[in-house]
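can u pls check wat happens w/ guanosine-5'-monophosphate
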Amino acid sequence: MPTIFAKIVRGEIPSDLVYQDEQVTAFRDISPVAPTHILIVPNKVIPTANDLTADDEQLVGHMVLVAKQIAEQEGIAANGYRLIINCNEHGGQVVFHLHMHLVGGQPLGPMILKRGS
Ligand code: 5GP
């Protein structure tokens, strides 16, 4: 079954597209947690970070560089931002098509919950 993100990559369902090239697609999260919340996804389906192989090394590096470029375009680079890849249940992953969250536009607070909270 294609994921919702695979359909967005192929333009089969609408999205607020920010960037696309032959390797990755970036679009605004439908439920943003901050003023800027953009998802950078590989065009090919890789379900989770656990499924990455050495062959994907360049692709993952490209995802980070695209995130950096988008952060500059969004005007959030100087103040800073956060890049997040959630993996599986404990990581809170809900869409099983690898994606990197680019989140910023406000102070983001602590990186993770404190133990026990
Ligand atoms: P995850 O928890 O898997 O790392 O994050 C999935 C993200 O995808 C969530 O932040 C969620 O709001 C976003 N999302 C889920 N469905 C859609 C959709 O159809 N369109 C867009 N633009 N974002 C989506």
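The domain at 4-104 is CATH 3.30.428.10 (HIT family, subunit A).
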